[in-house]
Design brief:
Distance between the termini of chain A: 35 Å
CATH architecture of chain A: 3-Layer(aba) Sandwich
Shape of chain A: globular
Oligomer: heterodimer
Number of strands of chain B: 14
Radius of gyration of chain A: 19 Å
Number of strands of chain A: 7
Shape of chain B: globular
CATH class of chain A: Alpha Beta
CATH superfamily of chain A: Thiamin diphosphate (ThDP)-binding fold, Pyr/PP domains
Distance between the termini of chain B: 49 Å
Bound molecules: thiamine diphosphate, magnesium ion
Strand content of chain B: 15-25%
Largest interface: A-B, 40 and 41 residues
Number of domains of chain A: 1
Number of helices of chain B: 12
Number of domains of chain B: 2
Largest sheet of chain B: 7 strands, mixed
Largest sheet of chain A: 5 strands, parallel
Number of helices of chain A: 12
Strand order of the largest sheet of chain A: 1-2-3-7-6
Order of helices and strands of chain A: HHHEHHHEHEEEHEHEHHH
Strand content of chain A: 5-15%
Structural class of chain B: alpha/beta
CATH superfamily of the largest domain in chain B: Thiamin diphosphate (ThDP)-binding fold, Pyr/PP domains
Radius of gyration of chain B: 20 Å
Chain lengths: 332, 336
Amino acid sequence: MTTSIERRNALYGNDVACYERMVEIREFEKITNAFFAAGSIRGTTHLAVGQEALALGIASTLKPTDVLAGTYRSHAIALALGLTPHSVLGEIMGKATGCCGGVGGSMHMCDTSVGLLPTSAIIGGGMPIAAGAALAFQVQKSKNVGVALFGDGATNIGAFHESLNLAAIWKLPVIFICDNNIYGEYSRIDKTTPIEDLHNRAESYAMPHMAIDGMDIHAVRKGLAEAVECARSGNGPTFIEAKTYRFSGHSRADQALYRPDGELAMWQKRDPLLLTEQDLIARKLLTQEKIDLIKSTTEIELGALAKQVEKDPEPELSAMFSNIYTPKKVSK
Amino acid sequence: MTAMRVRQAIVAALADEMRADESVIIFGEDIAEAEGVFKTSEGILEEFGPLRVRDTPISEMGFTGAAVGAAMMGLKPVVEIMFIEFLGVALDQVVTEAAKTRYLSHGTLSVPMTIRASAGSGLGFGCQHSQTLEHWFASTPGLKVVMPSDAQSAYSLLRAAIQDPDPVVVLEPRILYAERGEVETGKIAEIGKASMRTTGSDITIVALGHMVNIAQDAIQSAGVSADLIDLQTIIPWDRETVLASVKKTGRLIVVEEAPLSGGWGSEIVATVSAQLFSSLKSAPFRITTPDVPVPFNGGLEARYAPTSDDVARQIKHALSQSGAPEPWWVVEGVPR
Ligand SMILES: Cc1ncc(C[n+]2csc(CCOP(=O)(O)OP(=O)(O)O)c2C)c(N)n1
Ligand SMILES: [Mg+2]
């Protein structure tokens, strides 16, 4: 059994491994989608197809001791940070083998061994928490950083502004990463937000900010490395706006018919998998044959895993009553 | 009478109020162009136009507060909060601003706003999207809180809420949106007035929202003669109807889809116990969810809210013994 931390460590300095993980995420989301469509998963789901480069750029730049507070769009970042497809799919299917023991569901991933704090299904929920984690690192004089990962729509909620302001005045080692996929649910950004270059919002908090190409793993790493360096050396927070695109609808049922014609096709030309493949071929790290092999192997492996997870045990009834309070310490 | 789904009854109530009163405006996330994520505002933008029907950014505090201000100035805003949990980020505007406005304006300002929100468990949305949370509001003087149980009450309560001169929170059981029922349009409920779902002689059962349907199934399967009171309004609740019924039957069970601790049913059991002590044949009690977050797993979530089987078990107990029964998790000895 590979552990989360082993899967995480495999990414560092290994562009092929990062690419393989991106393929894994893409295939994983296909399975999730198919399971939902077939009715074998309950509730809702939010796919991150098209946003794999951002997830991998983050996972291969942060250390496992850094922490990240993310959102309901949780599968890609969880897999990237190291969670096993088994524990992520197990959670989505409500199995005892899921990372939250099956009581959380698709929107709620967590694995503290690789720094993933519980992802929140409330917009803005994770931002003050990332700042607070960074506050702890500041007080504890550790070199770790906190990261908040959230969508463009989340920049309109109060918690966003309050967190940025706090982080700025306290010079917290936190990085705000806005995944600007230009939609919040069914609304395009221009309908809800007066500006589209959201990183400019950090200006009024006197916080360094940048826009990066979220489809390109190198661009993500470069921008984030700079922000991490700034935070680790005590120079405070950075706001990063990653320009991305959501290839699928917002959630399970959404066909995304509200998108203008051609918009998806335009972004698909910059599919992060495609860009990475071109790069790896150019650098002679992979060949087209090898790429095809990676894809087909991943498909087969995840397909087999999915069959296994379907048969995994359901949580015991007692799971419903567990982990609500910290158990009292029993004195010996 | 027209057959419609609960979500269509909501659309009908919104449209009828907007036709009747130009000061009614509605806003919320994806309610205009997309017609609501639960399709509870289908056709509303088309008929009433963008001045009165607006999509908002993801800014619950901002737009709920804007409804408070607009209401003070004479509009009747209806805001949609997609899942009741999202009101958490706007709670100040509801419990500390809207509910106190009349008081702090020495009676010169009213806040005739309506907050609609989907609520409840059963659909696999996980613990941050499945609570009912009526207790957030139930101890806030100045607010009224209602919850429909079917298409008719969804229509009639929403119209009453919009017409009401004070802030009203309408909690809509999400699990019922697709359910069909006969609706008499034009029929407007009275806030604070319960409705009798069934009448009988042996026991009084008070329930709210989807639990009314669960209780009705339980009464049927237990084969008892019961007054089933669909409370409909939690504050101010209908003391008169409840007390009259328990006086007649001598027994009371309250069925709630909310945690055992801190539920509205305690208020009812306390009132009945104090007022009707000598006419009680058995101890009044509540059937609630355990004190746990709503679990995602389907098998576990199915045990979360009271089930008709368990309600039937407890009804039979109440009719045969004077003491209250234990909840299922105690009976089954689930390790906790
Ligand atoms: C406080 C709150 N309001 C509304 C929602 C419902 N909701 C879930 S996702 C979403 C859109 C978020 O868009 P964005 O921040 O751009 O993230 P994306 O989904 O595009 O990743 C909304 C409105 C919520 N979860 N929490
Ligand atoms: Mg977005």
